[in-house]
Amino acid sequence: GVVLEVKVKQGDQLAADDLLLVIGTDVSKPLTAATPIAQPIAAPVSVAAPVPPSSAGATEVRAPMPGLVLRIDVKVGDKVQENGLLMIMEAMKMENEIFAPAGGTITSISVKQGDQLMADDLLITIG
User: pTM value?
Assistant: First the structure.
């Protein structure tokens, strides 16, 4: 395709799903969602992928993507606030901070430093 329009400029603050570029096969035919492209576009991922609280009132924090546990900043029994740093994961050669989706007490840690993770693996439970 051909880049028809750039919707952002250097320094812009962006949110997930912001439109970056308009791509078309020629200037008169922009691509639509139904137009096949050569490579799939990666879906945005959130930094923390919480699962809604279970019936026991616990919040499970799951891996948002495959990666490697670089550092765990909490231990069982620690009290955390919502948006407090829980751990650092490396994925796609980037360090990703995993934050608490809810405040509470760390009731379990299901991973250790050096573990290779798959997307949606259970990381930490907050009660």
Answer: 0.57
